[in-house]
Amino acid sequence: MKSKAKPERTPAAPDHAQGRFATLRFERDVAAPLSALWQAWTAPAARALWSAPTPSVTVKFLEADTRVGGREVSLCKVEGQPDIRCECGWLALQPALRSVNYELVSSGNVTQSAALVTADFSGTDERSRLTVTVQLSSLAEDMEAGYRQGFNAGLDNLGAIARRTMVLQRVIRAPRSVVWNSWMNAETLPQWWGPDGFSCRTKRIDLRAGGEWVFDMIAPDGKVFPNHHLYGEVQPEERIAYALLWGENGPKHADAWVSFEDQNGATKVTLGMVFSTEAEFQEAKGFGAVELGLQTLGKLEHFIESRR
Q: Under 8 Å CB-to-CB from 260, ≥6 apart: which residues?
């Protein structure tokens, strides 16, 4: 997809000014639900997948906290060149409507640019629209061109990620600590995980960053589905991120994350998955992955209720 709107630029700054100023505008129509686009834009696990503008750039996340007042710090690495540090601070988050963040770009402890980034969202269950406005103050000569190129490439990546993102949500009537402890507990997780009628047979389980869960899911008819979860991030009572493999050390078929949010004494659980290909996403939707996933979250709530 290409930007449909021409970037608007403010008048050039006087020669004696210490920066160059521009307002850039980018628009995308995405063939994905608004909920998927919002999660792809804000969830750290998803942002790590689309933020690199080209395959030659590696983005390493050092810190990620997508809350008002939180920040994201990453390093852009290109072989043979100094690392570029990007700090993103979240100023406003209105789910599925708008986000506002500042962005500071530096290299070698020297700030190169500062920007205010506003993203506006709209859409339906089938399609969504994103408008990004970047108010840029750059201290380096070529930053405007770099921003234009970087945002265009990143938003193209974002659209591709959103089209294969599945989002499942459920509000569970229990405190966040209870929901978290039911999920991130080696004894309890296998007791409720899976759709209605399925059971789990664990081979190894280690629920921490760098840990894994190797297990079989057993269908009501006895069919066995080997699974392997590799945990990349664990932020207690906040979120987890993990990769889903087809069986032990098998090929990856999705990157997933779970977030836990307080909601009037209850807990909003969001389970997001970015499938490795759009074909796998469509196949999963075809065999009822959304319904089966919602059944899994329902089993979690019933499990918690049964232990009260």
A: 176, 179, 180, 237, 238, 239, 267, 268, 269
- Cβ atoms of residues 257 and 234 within 8 Å: no
- What pLDDT, in 10s, does the model give residues 85-142? 999 999 999 999 999 999 999 999 899 999 999 999 999 889 999 999 999 998 877 7
Model-wide pTM > 0.70: yes
CATH tag for 20-163 (out of 3.20.20.30, 3.40.50.300, 3.10.180.10, 3.30.530.20): 3.30.530.20
> Counting every residue, how long is the chain?
308
- The burial class, CB within 10 Å (0-12 / 13-18 / 19+), for 249 is exposed
| Residue spans in the chain of domains classed CATH 3.30.530.20 | 20-163, 166-306
Contact 29, 178 (CB under 8 A): no
Element (H, E) at 222: none
**Strand pairing category for 71-77 and 58-64:** antiparallel
What is the CATH number that goes with domain 166-306? Answer: 3.30.530.20
Strands (E), the chain: 20-30, 58-64, 71-77, 84-94, 98-107, 110-123, 128-138, 165-172, 199-205, 212-218, 224-235, 239-246, 252-263, 266-275
